[in-house]
């Protein structure tokens, strides 16, 4: 009889009351047992972002094969197609994601999860912070819940990226070329502001920096309301911050979180590789799905068919 070493030794260490856990005693790869995969899936559903240390053995291929155990990997990106075949390089030369967002929320089929692997880290700084959008929804007073449950937002890949940050990479030639490729096709999708999580049934705010406006509100009203709601998402109690080490892997539930990469490592190179997993089309509390305004994301991702987990 073979012993499932990974499940026998895997431990989930909670990092905060609202979000975050570290999983120890698992060597990530294509050969994980179904029990270990199940442990990872349920930890992800419960804690929203999970971290693994010491995965130095993992290559890009290994990261991809592991990703296939958790879902269907998408192509690296809907518009950034020149940089990688299996994964998207997250490289400080091309851009710095120091602005709160949910990944790829400008398409209808928002990826359900992202798997990020450290490749080359700066000698200081460069942490990443995640926020629970479920905790943010749950803390809303009743009148605001009623408001957001009946509100829809337009998300686009041509967004005002300079609005609340100084992006050091945006100024160089590589950063400009990356930005041009990012915007090379126009995507716009109307999503509910509150989506019902297809696995946990939890309600989550769906916002972040790809939001252009709220449907039916003026630009100024959209801006004011967006600020109010985003401030609730990023309340420090809703967040966890990870200080990367070589060999680390982070996985987040992109249906229940936003994240922000802290740009505090000056000119030092920083590189990670990201694989996103196909997700479903969001549905609001009334059962209404998101609608496409512009762009077709079929080449990027399938639409995942989700079966809710037993409680
Ligand atoms: O650089 C990071 O830590 C995260 C970048 C990011 O937004 C992503 O990988 O989706
Ligand atoms: Fe991101």
The shape, in one word, is: globular
Largest sheet: 7 strands, mixed
Bound molecules: 2-oxoglutaric acid, fe (ii) ion
Number of domains: 1
* SS elements, strand count: 16
Residues in β-strands, percent: 15-25%
The N- to C-terminal Cα distance equals 31 Å
Low-confidence segments? 1-6
Per DSSP, the total helix count is: 7
Mean pLDDT: 93
CATH superfamily: Clavaminate synthase-like
**SSE string, helix = H, strand = E?**
HEEHEHEEEHHEHEEEEHEEEEE
Percentage of residues assigned to helices: 10-25%
Just give the CATH class. Answer: Alpha Beta
- Largest sheet, order of strands side by side? 1-2-3-13-5-15-4
Task: Indicate the CATH architecture.
Answer: 4-Layer Sandwich
* Topology-level CATH name: Double-stranded beta-helix
**Helix/strand-derived class?**
alpha+beta
User: Any idea what the radius of gyration is?
Assistant: 19 Å
Quaternary assembly? single chain
Verbal overview:
- This protein has 311 residues and is α+β, with helices and mostly antiparallel strands.
- It has one domain (5-294): Double-stranded beta-helix (4-Layer Sandwich).
- It is built from seven helices and 16 strands.
- The chain has helices spanning 5-9, 34-47, 60-70, 133-138, 142-149, 173-182, 219-233; strands at residues 11-14, 21-24, 49-52, 88-91, 113-120, 128-132, 152-156, 188-192, 194-196, 203-205, 211-214, 239-242, 249-253, 257-261, 271-277, 291-294.
- It has a seven-stranded mixed β-sheet, covered by helices on one side.
- Strand 1 (11-14) and strand 2 form a beta hairpin.
- The structure holds 2-oxoglutaric acid and fe (ii) ion.
- 2-oxoglutaric acid binds at residues 90, 97, 103, 114, 116, 128, 259, 261, 272, 274.
């Amino acid at each position: 009889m073979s012993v499932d070493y990974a499940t026998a030794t895997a431990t989930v260490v909670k990092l905060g009351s609202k979000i975050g856990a570290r999983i120890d005693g698992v060597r990530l790869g294509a050969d994980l047992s179904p029990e270990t995969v199940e442990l990872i899936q349920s930890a992800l559903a419960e804690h929203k972002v999970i971290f693994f240390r010491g995965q130095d053995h993992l290559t890009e291929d290994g990261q991809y094969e592991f990703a296939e155990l958790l879902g269907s990997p998408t192509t690296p990106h809907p518009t950034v197609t020149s940089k990688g075949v299996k994964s998207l390089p997250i490289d400080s030369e091309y851009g710095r994601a120091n602005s709160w967002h949910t990944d790829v929320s400008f398409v209808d089929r928002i990826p359900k999860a992202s798997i990020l692997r450290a490749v080359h880290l700066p000698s200081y700084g460069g942490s990443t912070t995640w926020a629970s959008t479920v905790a943010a929804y749950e803390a809303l007073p009743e009148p605001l819940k009623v408001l957001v449950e009946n509100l829809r937002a337009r998300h686009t890949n041509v967004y005002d990226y300079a609005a609340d940050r100084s992006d050091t990479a945006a100024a160089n030639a590589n950063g400009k070329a990356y930005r041009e490729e990012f915007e090379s096709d126009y995507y716009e999708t109307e999503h509910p502001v509150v989506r019902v999580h297809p696995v946990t049934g939890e309600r989550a705010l769906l916002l972040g920096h790809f939001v252009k406006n709220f449907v039916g509100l003026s630009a100024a009203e959209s801006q004011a309301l967006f600020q109010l709601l985003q401030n609730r998402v990023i309340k420090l109690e809703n967040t966890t911050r990870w200080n990367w080490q070589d060999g680390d892997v982070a996985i987040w539930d992109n249906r229940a979180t936003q994240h922000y990469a802290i740009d505090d490592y000056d000119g030092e190179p920083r590189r990670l590789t990201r694989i996103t997993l196909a997700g479903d089309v969001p549905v609001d509390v009334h059962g209404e799905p998101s609608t496409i305004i512009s762009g077709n994301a079929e080449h990027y991702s399938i639409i995942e068919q989700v079966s809710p987990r037993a409680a």
